[in-house]
Amino acid sequence: MRTRVKDYIEVSDYTSLERLITTLTAIRDSLPETAEPELKMRGDDVFGRRLSISYWRELSREEQELDAKYSSAAKAAGEEIAALAAKLDDVPFERAPKKKRAA
Question: What pTM, to 2 d.p., does this model score?
Answer without folding.
Answer: 0.55
